[in-house]
Amino acid sequence: MRGVNASPAIPADRVRLSVAPMMDWTDSHCRAFHRVLAPHARLYSEMVHANAVIHGDRARLLAMDPSEHPVALQLGGSEPALLAQAARIGAEAGFDEINLNCGCPSDRVQAGRFGACLMREPALVAESVAAMIAACPVPVTVKCRLGVDDDHEWERFVHFIDTIAAAGCRSFIVHARNAWLQGLSPKENREVPPLRYDWAYRLKRERPALQVVVNGGIADAAEASAHLAHVDGAMLGRAAYHTPYLLHELDVAWFGGALRSRAELLRAYRPYVEAQLARGVFLKHITRHLLGLFAGQPGGRAFRQVLSEGAHRPGAGWALVEQALALTERAQAA
Ligand SMILES: Cc1cc2nc3c(=O)[nH]c(=O)nc-3n(C[C@H](O)[C@H](O)[C@H](O)COP(=O)(O)O)c2cc1C
Questions:
Q1: How far is Cα 302 from Cα 176, in angstroms, rounded to an integer?
Q2: Which of 125, 170, 196, 302 could tie 327 with a disulfide, CB 3.0–4.6 Å?
């Protein structure tokens, strides 16, 4: 590593639990909610293209509440100079980490030559990462797949990782399946290519100095905990979004503290919601992230229904959330 400007390390207990970057889902309101549930989790933004960070509406794209820390900005792109500039802007905006997306398989992304197709361009990713590390003081990390299409050789995968690690990146999030660039939608690409956690485990075994976080298909607390025997952390995406109480259970199980009820956590989020409403944010933009809080619980459907139906009405405020909660609590008592 001599001569290489290494990215700062992330403390081990800060990578154990994380919530995946998810477009249209992990906006600032969602992250602030997840923070209430999981005080120790690392949170990730939606992917923002480097060009958008540089030329776009930064106030909107980089919106972040101080309660969210530690929170990472995920960038898309493949031009080292632009990524470096965007990384600097992200760090100046207060993000604690800049993550480079090397895993997204959508057509739009492939046309722009970023996301998962970068798995076949390790030298370009290394150059990008080196430029980002030189441009900003916070950790620069990479989220990738195991390969694209029919790439199934371990050597190719580990060459990708080694090339980027040699550029100074110490921390990798591995969505443990291939991306198929032809014929699958992004949604299918999160479900169809088989999961192979053993490659993430092997990476950690063979490159113990690197931080390896495993992602993909982690559905419950037992599965998430099992990964910790092999890698540094578990990143949850859809399960965290659809059943957010799981985040709270994991945070308590892995970091300690007392388990709080769903209602208690929801009320702890109230000051954030009221501050946003006072700024003119519509309730529906916030409550859409809360719908899964009572998933699988008595009254869970009523909670969802009251919020879905009422939150778009003019003047909808915290009272609606209390109304949904009251119905749910009544169902639970019965
Ligand atoms: C709605 C949605 C949007 C996503 N957007 C992104 C994104 O912006 N950047 C990214 O790296 N991955 C994105 N992903 C992939 C997730 O980060 C994660 O890798 C994937 O869902 C697998 O994890 P899971 O099985 O725990 O959901 C997205 C996934 C979903 C469901």
A1: 36
A2: 302
Taking the CA atoms of 222, 210, 235 and 248 in sequence, report the sign of the dihedral they define.
positive
One-letter identity of residue 154: W
Tell the residue nearest (CA) to atom 13 of ligand 1: 22
Digit-coded pLDDT (tens) for 98-123: 999 999 887 666 666 788 999 999 99
pLDDT, one tens digit per residue, over 63-72 is: 999 999 999 9
Q: Using DSSP, state whether 299 is helix, strand or coil.
A: coil
Cα atoms in the 13 Å half-sphere on the side-chain side of 295: 13
Residue 183, pLDDT above cutoff 90:
no
Domains of the chain: 12-255 (3.20.20.70), 262-333 (1.20.120.1460)
Ligand 1 neighbours (beta carbon < 6 A): 20-25, 46-47, 74, 101, 103-104, 143, 175, 190, 215-218, 236-239
Helix or strand run (H / E) with residue 73: strand 71-76
104 is a catalytic site residue: yes
Establish how many alpha carbons lie within 13 A of residue 237's alpha carbon, considering only the half-sphere containing its beta carbon.
Answer: 21
CA atoms of 160 and 223, how far apart (whole Å): 27
- Quote helix, strand, coil % in the chain, to nearest 5: 50, 15, 40
Q: Which atom of ligand 1 is nearest to the CA of 217?
A: 25
- Contact yes or no for 119/144 (Cβ under 8 A): yes
Question: Cα(19) to centroid of ligand 1, in Å?
Answer: 9
132 is in an annotated binding site: no
Backbone φ and ψ of 142, nearest 5°: -130, 135
Strands 140-144, 171-175: pairing is parallel
